[in-house]
């Protein structure tokens, strides 16, 4: 690991200085830009992090170890982090799940899985190097462990959805080692299983932890290793294990009573949502989408959308097989957004008229003031919406 000097100015001192200068008319941006010339980790408003290590996890995933400054807030296991990457002069923001790094209180780690056609994920895997500085934002999200920790926790992960679960495992191992924890981890194969060695070693050292690796091309569709072409929709592999009640009864007989956390591709999330609903235990299931769900509506359907923001109105047509965010972008509009995964809520709008389908929950949402997220909503009728950001 490449070491870098620890910032010489404490976060508390930097914040006091920024506040004092603010009274003199110095803007937060000007303060950050000035101290950033000395060390980008001294910034207190628009945070940055330095890549101090990069590890290849699988042929399609890499882990970045990021050194953060003292102004970076406390991190709860399972939360997400917005990362800003500039590519050819354009800044892109994506959400990833950070985890603490053992023996490095000034560092966090994120694991980035290539996505087909994914501009940012492929750039991070191919181009980002040790020493590079990237923008980060404070951690957020409610996909976290409860307090107090329940006696039994069930974690279900698919593909790169293991990353928030790994953060939870580290937290439980350190602070609640007596908790009975079971991890069901679906991946296409052992070769594609992120953090496989660390998970195996953890299961050998931690007697309360049961690790169940499962090969599955049902819940984790196969992707070419270049990460730039579409997924293989009909793989011929024999890895057909699925999340079902039989598997749950065999591995966690009391699964309906356990606090359950599921993160992964849409097929896995849909299966979990249906199983827990049928068992009448939905209140115990917590979901975190790690990839944007794919619309499956009628591509020939066209719905007229009026979007109001900052006193202006924009109009475009949305096909049934496009999210409202993509439909607006294809019409040439720049729409405020962040993660594109239904996580950060920056594209949230108020639905004044019409109906949409929420791709995360599958629910129909009707107008009269309901909030919707454009990146995970498709139009079911003509719409009148107002941006809340």
Helix content: 10-25%
**Amino-to-carboxy terminus distance:** 40 Å
As a whole number of angstroms, the C-alpha radius of gyration is 22 Å
- Element-level helix/strand string: HHEEEEEEHEEHEHEHEHEEEHEEEEEE
Low-pLDDT residue intervals, each spanning 5 or more residues: 1-8, 224-238
What would the keywords be for this entry?
single chain; alpha+beta; 20 strands; 389 residues
Can you summarize this structure?
The protein is 21% helix and 32% strand. It has 389 residues and is α+β, with helices and mostly antiparallel strands.
Write the layout of secondary structure elements.
Blueprint: H1 11-23, H2 28-38, E1 48-58, E2 61-68, E3 81-87, E4 90-96, E5 99-101, E6 104-113, H3 119-126, E7 133-136, E8 152-158, H4 162-175, E9 180-187, H5 196-205, E10 209-215, H6 245-251, E11 259-264, H7 266-278, E12 285-289, E13 302-309, E14 312-319, H8 324-330, E15 348-353, E16 355-358, E17 364-366, E18 370-373, E19 377-379, E20 383-387
Parallel strand pairs: 8-9, 8-11, 9-10, 11-12, 13-20
Antiparallel strand pairs: 1-2, 1-7, 2-6, 3-4, 3-7, 5-6, 13-14, 15-18, 15-20, 16-17, 16-19
Description:
The chain is of the alpha+beta class and 389 residues long. It is 21% helix and 32% strand. The protein has eight helices and 20 strands. A seven-stranded antiparallel sheet has the order 4-3-7-1-2-6-5. A five-stranded parallel sheet has the order 10-9-8-11-12, sandwiched between helices. Strands 14-13-20-15-18 form a five-stranded mixed sheet. A hairpin with a 5-residue loop joins strand 16 and strand 17.
């Amino acid at each position: 690991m490449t070491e870098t000097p620890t910032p010489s100015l404490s976060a508390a001192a930097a914040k006091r200085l920024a506040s004092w200068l603010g009274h003199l008319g110095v803007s937060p941006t000007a303060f950050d830009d000035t101290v950033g010339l000395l060390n980008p980790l001294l910034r207190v408003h628009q945070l940055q992090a330095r890549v101090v290590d990069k590890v290849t996890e699988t042929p399609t995933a890499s882990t970045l170890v990021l050194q953060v400054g003292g102004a970076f807030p406390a991190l709860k296991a399972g939360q997400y982090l917005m990362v800003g990457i500039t590519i050819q002069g354009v800044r892109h923001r994506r959400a990833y799940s950070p985890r603490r790094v053992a023996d490095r209180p000034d560092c966090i780690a994120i694991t980035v899985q290539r996505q087909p056609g994914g501009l940012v994920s492929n750039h991070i895997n191919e181009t980002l190097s040790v020493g590079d500085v990237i923008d980060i934002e404070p951690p957020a999200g409610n996909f976290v462990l409860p307090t107090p920790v329940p006696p039994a926790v069930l974690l279900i992960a698919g593909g790169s959805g293991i990353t928030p679960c790994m953060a939870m495992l580290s937290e439980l191992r350190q602070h609640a080692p007596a908790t009975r924890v079971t991890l069901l981890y679906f991946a296409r194969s052992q070769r594609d299983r992120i953090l496989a060695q660390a998970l195996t070693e953890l299961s050998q050292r931690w007697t309360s932890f049961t690790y169940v690796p499962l090969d599955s091309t049902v819940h984790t569709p196969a992707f070419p290793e270049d990460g730039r072409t579409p997924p293989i929709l009909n793989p011929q592999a024999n890895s057909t294990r699925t999340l079902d009640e039989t598997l749950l009864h065999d591995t966690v007989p009391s699964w309906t009573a356990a606090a359950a956390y599921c993160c992964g591709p849409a097929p896995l999330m849909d299966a979990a949502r249906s199983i827990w609903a049928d068992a009448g235990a939905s209140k115990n299931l917590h979901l975190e989408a790690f990839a944007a769900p794919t619309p499956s509506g009628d591509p020939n359907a066209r719905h007229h959308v009026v979007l109001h923001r900052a006193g202006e109105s924009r109009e475009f047509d949305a096909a049934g097989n496009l999210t409202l965010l993509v439909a607006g972008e294809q019409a040439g509009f720049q729409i405020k957004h962040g993660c594109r995964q239904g996580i950060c809520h920056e594209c949230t709008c108020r639905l004044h008229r019409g109906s949409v389908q929420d791709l995360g929950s599958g629910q129909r949402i009707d107008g009269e003031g309901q909030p919707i997220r454009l990146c995970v909503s498709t139009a079911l009728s003509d719409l009148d919406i107002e941006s809340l950001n």
